[in-house]
Design goal:
Number of strands: 16
Distance between the termini: 20 Å
CATH class of the largest domain: Alpha Beta
CATH superfamily of the largest domain: Zn peptidases
Helix content: 25-40%
Mean pLDDT: 93
Order of helices and strands: HHHHEEEHEHEEEEEHEEEHEEHEEH
Number of helices: 10
Oligomer: single chain
Radius of gyration: 24 Å
Low-confidence stretches: 1-14
């Protein structure tokens, strides 16, 4: 399938609506999109617990008249808008929230203690539901099928995308698209990059095991806190010795836990974190070095350890043709300045990559910077968006879907 750019009025010759018509329809949905996003934001649910969220998503899609499957891999919702022909384009949204409290003073602040949509999944859901509704309102007979995938657990292992791929959700899919909000990009713009977009992300869980004892008699114990401190230093040394400008790597410790009282040396300390690299060889070298040095240190101290590296999330590698299609749609719909070129690989992990093991696709950054220009970063207590991005994202993704199928039919330009 070719993804060369479409002229703005090509849709007319193919029986497809113009970009202007798409924007008109989506603008009429503005209040609905904002209300939907705010409802998701106010009632977030954590990974693998997205029961009410999934119920709401399914209800919205059923009202559009889509064929809806609920309870896929637990809480996933998969729906299809079927047209003629055999081509299948998938669109993905994630649904889970993060275990954070909401510090914002807004009417739609999270009402669930310890849960917050701090990564924009509320916006993703509203936009993808909006695309389904816009396509229905436009009434275009598509020469193929759009499969809407609402996945659980993007934030936590096991990956929702990985589980859905194993369950066959990508069967017959030719290509897949998704947005991810980006608070560093202004609303009305998208960020694009061909090829590698994100690092692969590997979690590690290390339990350092020693011998508990009284704080007054450390010589009778194997001090896991002291040993863990030594291990932490070596972890950072390992990364610095294996990473370089051509093979960047980031190690971050997100959890250190051990002990119950100030005067008791704990028997066990847990250390957990992530290793992020842009190539598998660097990742494997770092993992092997960590395992060797942890073994040597704990053995020398008379202790033991348990080290686990769960299955890593691969890098997102964007299809060049789909990126060019997205660029063309954005420029024609929003103007030449609407595209931001992403020049560096993000060290963030993204399980959208699991879908790309089955079909080419593209993950597109959607600008959501707030009107005052302030940046509220992802995964923070104050994260929020400029809600104008909801209509921008819905219009763009709807136009991308229609452009995809217009080009799939290989109809001549007007």
């Amino acid at each position: 399938m070719s993804f060369s750019g479409a002229k703005r009025n090509d849709f007319m010759s193919a029986g497809f609506p113009t970009f202007d018509r798409i924007q008109q329809v989506v603008r009429q949905m503005k209040d609905e999109l904002v209300a939907l996003r705010r409802d998701f934001h106010a009632y977030p649910e954590l990974s693998w617990k997205e029961f009410k969220t999934a119920e709401r998503v399914a209800g919205e899609l059923q009202r559009v008249g889509l064929e809806v499957q609920e309870g896929v891999c637990g809480t996933a919702v998969v729906a299809e808008l079927k047209g003629g022909g055999k081509g299948v384009l998938a669109i993905r949204s994630d649904m889970d929230a993060l275990p954070l409290h909401d510090s914002k003073d807004v009417p739609y602040a999270s009402r669930v203690t310890g849960a917050l949509h701090a990564c924009g999944h509320d916006s993703h859901m509203a936009i993808v539901i909006g695309v389904a509704k816009a396509l229905q309102k436009l009434g275009t007979e598509l020469p193929g099928t759009v499969r809407f995938i609402f996945q659980p657990s993007e934030e936590t292992a096991p990956s929702g995308a990985g589980e859905l791929v194993k369950a066959g959700v990508m069967q017959d899919v030719d290509h897949i698209l998704a947005f991810h909000v980006d608070p560093e990009i202004q609303v009305g713009k998208i960020g694009l990059r061909k090829g590698v977009l994100t690092a692969n992300c590997n979690e590690f869980i290390l339990n350092v095991i020693g011998k508990s004892g009284h704080a007054a008699r450390p010589h009778h114990a194997i001090d896991t806190v002291y040993l863990s401190n030594q291990i932490l230093n070596l972890l950072y040394d390992v990364v610095s010795s294996h990473a370089g400008s051509l093979a960047p790597a980031v190690l971050t410790i997100g959890k250190i836990q051990g002990g119950t009282k100030s005067n008791v040396i704990p028997e066990k300390v847990e250390i957990a974190g992530t290793i992020r690299t842009v190539d598998a060889q660097t990742r494997d070298d770092i993992q092997n070095a960590i395992a060797e040095r942890v073994h040597a240190l704990t053995r020398a101290a008379g202790g033991s350890y348990q080290l686990e590296f769960p299955e890593p999330i691969p890098s997102v590698v964007n299809d060049a043709g789909l990126v060019e299609m997205a660029r063309d749609v954005a420029v024609k719909m929003l103007g030449q300045e609407s595209v931001v070129e992403i020049t560096k690989v993000s060290m963030g992990g993204e399980d959208f990559s699991w879908y790309l093991t089955k079909a080419p696709g593209a993950l597109i950054r959607l600008g959501v910077r707030k009107p005052d220009g302030a940046i509220t970063y992802l995964h923070t207590h104050e994260f929020d968006i400029d809600e104008r991005a909801l209509t921008v994202g819905t219009s763009l993704m709807t136009a991308m879907v229609l452009t995809y199928f217009r080009q799939a039919t290989q109809l001549p330009a007007a």
